[in-house]
Amino acid sequence: MLVRFYRDSHPSSFFTIPFLALLCWIPFLFLQPESFIVQVPRPMPVYEWLYSGISKLHIFAQYFISWLLISVQAIYLNQLIVKHELFPRLSFLPALLFITLSVMFPEMMKIQPALFVNLVLLMVLDKVFLLYKNPEPFRQVFDTSFLLAFATLIDSSAIIFYFFLLLSFIILLPFHWRIWIISFIGFALPYYFLSIYLFLSGSLAGFWLQKIPKAFFIIQFIPPHFKPAQIIAVSVLLFLLLISVFSVSRHFYRNIIRIRRYFQLIFLLMLFALLSLFFTPAISLQSICIMVIPFSIFFSYFFLQVKKKAFAEFSFLLLMVFIILVRFG
User: φ and ψ at 252, to 5 degrees?
Assistant: First the structure.
């Protein structure tokens, strides 16, 4: 029923997305943990400042920030797909799938670096799509590089996505040396501005000699430890992902060249998001939050294109059942 409702472009679907997300926060009203923001080891400066401010807020205010971030990202993702015409018709399935995957595990709903990085990635993806056959791409090149550098100041593992951006330049743009120079300058500027601030506050040496080496060059990979119900839920996700990628590949050459390039980038984004997990101190349910954007796009494309609507409803129902089992199991 939900898939059918959000599959069509009902105007009411757009306004129900935040309320649908809000329902997922109701159980926390009874649990009320001490804090709803994650304290990470070796935090980067921007997240360290965010943590120091948000952690002092009332728990309900932290719930609100988490709900607002996920809701805004779901709507932004949906509008991004509509704006760049990735799907053959208007649909609100991307927003529905983004909400569903973001709340699949309670750990993913907490305020954490990946939650902010996802918002930056959506802005980067929006600007990257504007590069295709753009005769003057320099503004987008600078903006995307600047945004990704800012993302690394939230979570150091976001450095991986800068290589995704450079690969996007190769796919979407003819080679021009100015593009690469502008990109490097855009990426360096946030660190330049931060260095000025740290110099004035007397903590510049500590940032470059202690925090940066620990954040970027010390990788302590710890394998994830999932419960049986969580392993089954992740397995169902991977199964649906395989079906979704196969669905995209079936319709790949039916799309115009621009849309093919976009889907190639989304697939690369998923690979780089997976690679970024190996640059986190430990892979956990919180860290896989970074996979939500590409997964949502592929899943929603599958649910939109599948001819047997009953199969789409059953698949989504199966996903919802596992979410409930993980929540209350």
Answer: -60, -50
In this structure, what token pair is assigned to residue 309? 């609507």
Q: Phi then psi for 65, rounded to 5 degrees?
A: -65, -45
Measuring CA to CA, which residue among 8, 2, 184 is closest to residue 90?
Answer: 8
List of the chain residues with pLDDT < 70: 1, 9, 217-225, 281-285, 327-329
pLDDT in the model for residue 328: 61
C-alpha distance across the termini of the chain, in Å: 25
Spatial neighbors of 159 by CB under 8 A, at least 6 apart, are: 152, 216, 279
- The dihedrals phi and psi of 37, each to the nearest 5 degrees, come to -120, 140
Three-state DSSP class for residue 37: strand
HEC sequence for 247-298: HHHHCHHHCCHHHHHHHHHHHHHHHHHHHHHHHCCCCCCCHHHHHHHHHHHH
pLDDT at 324: 74
Contact 113, 44 (CB under 8 A): yes
Helix axes 228-250, 309-328, angle to 10 degrees: 160
